[in-house]
Write a structure and sequence with these properties.
This protein has a domain of 101 residues: Rossmann fold. It contains 10 helices and 10 strands. The chain is of the alpha/beta class.
């Protein structure tokens, strides 16, 4: 489905990603793990059209998308749930969700809203509440729900567990698995929670200082001595 070939992304002429290649097959959960500053967020921004690609190419279904604008990439079926949630705090929960469906018909929007409320009953209870008054966990649910409202083929999640209590972290990972299993949604997951990510991932890549340094199945990397030394020895955080 998604293929990235040897991309370089720069900030003020300084490369943040260099010669990065990876792929995501339809129906997979693919995790990208690494420490702060490794380039994980930059990778998702490049895919979604928020950062220009200086070299290399990004393909969706063998069609290049790295030259498209962000809204065109969204229309092709990629939804990006950014780090920090990016909700509209002064808008209601319902309005936030509707904004995620701006490219969809009213019928599609309403059908998808039903599914989002099935996945997140708390959002249904608070649909007329201002988003900024929600708890951190509820705001993360809203951010994911808004991404789902676009009816994407590929959902990209950037640090969905960031800043959440451990019990909510577990709930978020269970939800990611559920969406993948029940809806067949392909997911590209960027996370610092290494153990939890590898436990649900079909495949994973490790980014360090803008390079892919390791790749394999989630299970392979979960039992990798290199991963244990670099990340799991520090409580699963990188």
């Amino acid at each position: 489905m998604l293929r990235i070939e040897n991309i370089e992304v720069r900030y003020d002429e300084v490369p943040a990603l260099r010669d990065v290649s990876l792929s995501v097959n339809e129906g997979e959960i693919v995790a990208v793990i690494g420490s702060n500053g490794a380039g994980k967020t930059t990778l998702l921004r490049a895919i979604s059209g928020m950062r220009p690609v200086a070299q290399g190419a990004i393909y969706l279904d063998d069609q290049p998308i790295h030259t498209l604008k962000a809204h065109q990439i969204t229309a092709r079926g990629i939804a990006h749930v950014p780090e920090g949630r990016g909700i509209f705090a002064h808008q209601t929960v319902l309005r936030n969700l509707y904004l995620g469906a701006f490219l969809r018909s009213d019928d599609e929007r309403d059908r998808t809203l039903e599914r989002v409320f099935q996945l997140f009953p708390r959002l249904a209870e608070r649909k007329e509440q201002r988003a900024g008054t929600l708890s951190g966990g509820e705001q993360q649910m809203l951010a994911i729900g808004r991404g789902l409202m676009a009816r994407p083929r590929l959902l990209m999640l950037d640090e969905p567990s960031l800043g959440l209590m451990p019990v909510l972290v577990d709930a978020i990972f269970q939800l990611v698995e559920r969406i993948n299993r029940e809806d067949g949604l392909t997911i590209l997951l960027v996370e610092q929670n290494v153990r939890e990510s590898l436990e649900i991932a079909d495949r994973a890549y490790v980014l360090e200082t803008g390079h892919v340094v390791l790749e394999g199945t989630g299970e392979e990397l979960l039992h990798s001595e290199q991963i244990h030394k670099a990340y799991l020895g520090m409580g699963g955080e990188g």
